[in-house]
Predict the structure of ferredoxin--NADP(+) reductase.
Amino acid sequence: MSLRVAVIGAGPAGIYASDLLIRNEDYDVHVDLFEQMPAPFGLIRYGVAPDHPRIKGIVNSLHRVLDKPELRLLGNIEVGKDITIDELRQYYDAIVISTGAVRDRELLLPGGDASIGAGEFVGFYDGNPRFDRSWNLEAREVAVIGVGNVALDISRVLAKTGDELLVTEIPDNVYESLKNNKAEVVHMFGRRGPAQAKFTPKELRELDESDTIQVLVDPEDIDYDAQSEEVRRADKSVDLVCQVLEQYAIREPDDAPHKIHIHFFEEPVEVLRDGDAIVGLRTERQELDGEGGIRGTGQFTDWPVQQVYHAIGYRSEPVEGVPFDLERNVIPNDGGHVMEGSTFADSLYVTGWIKRGPVGLIGNTKSDAKETTDMLFADAAAGTLNTPTHSDPDAILDLLTERGIEYTTWEGWYELDKAERTLGESCSIHPRERKKIVEWEEMVRHAHA
Ligand code: NAP
């Protein structure tokens, strides 16, 4: 029996789900993978830091999936605007949403609106055309709120020199901005302790690998209560993170020109302003409450920083025509099947960060995809999937063409990829594997070459 499925979002979550769909042995499945950007790969292209080639390398396995003939990439299409979910039901037996989480959670404290969300900066340095193309990097001391892997990424990029990043795929405007970056000191703030930090050990160690950066921790901030010790014993990754932080705490400052200070037990309470200018960040000292939580001590510190970023988590955005839980910022679902109130939505499924929230490494989305596709196949076996009105697989292309949508394809990615590699190899400042093309129209133009 054959099935046609629309997967919306060509990041790792959507590609893993597509792979499981087309590999199924009981059904002959064809997938159309819709993507808003002209290029595929989502978080790998627009979320992973440019100096993380190991993680960017995941793209090779995703590439192999997209090469399969049962999968068709349709980029440069905004589902909800260019085509609605109800319209897609006329062409597909089922729809899987995997649009991820790209927006920043809001920093809710006085002056917090002056703080820049980490995702904005990531969007800038990863050359995402939906984000600002110029960046103010005049601050000598910078605060980064949050002690997760995104905080590590942006602190590392802020502390590295532009030249160190020139071996990567960064576009010219990003290099020019980073080359003139004035930041010398980056302060990261965790409101709880080292055992409650969200870092992973490998990424924390990588923070210290540049010759121009020294990472420091105040020995006073290395503190564990009974609950923290228990967490360390139960979780090897937490224990390794604590060990790395302890190493950072016993060293003397050296002559590295850029310092990253990781502070614990400091809860940001106000971004201090003088008119439009940021003049500091006020934090309140915390202590552990014995249960993994914290309580304020009433002791405040003003840190003289001129720029504040918050890396306190991402959030998903609603998809037009699909239920959305505004409190949890996810699409409500039961095991991946979208819920409308207490009933299952017709043939509509969800996977990845928009299903469970923005936590976990890229590989974790594989188990998500498995749960979701198992649910979809169970519904197919039960005969409860949608029956599309169009049986011709090219009918959807006719509709897109009729609407004047310049959709991009997997063949188009090969063209864009070739153009980016040529730009990288011929780069006069520093030849490298690839230089990213940022402008939307440019991407579409190359994809149609
Ligand atoms: P995260 O891991 O959830 O970390 C968020 C941090 O923000 C936590 O330290 C949290 O502290 C803090 N925070 C939240 N609200 C706060 C507030 N109001 N005031 C002060 N601090 C606050 O989120 P993330 O860093 O965005 O990462 C998202 C996911 O992507 C994670 O699974 C991460 O591992 C993954 N990722 C991986 C890589 C990689 O290189 N492998 C790179 C980037 C991201 P509390 O714990 O106290 O709430």
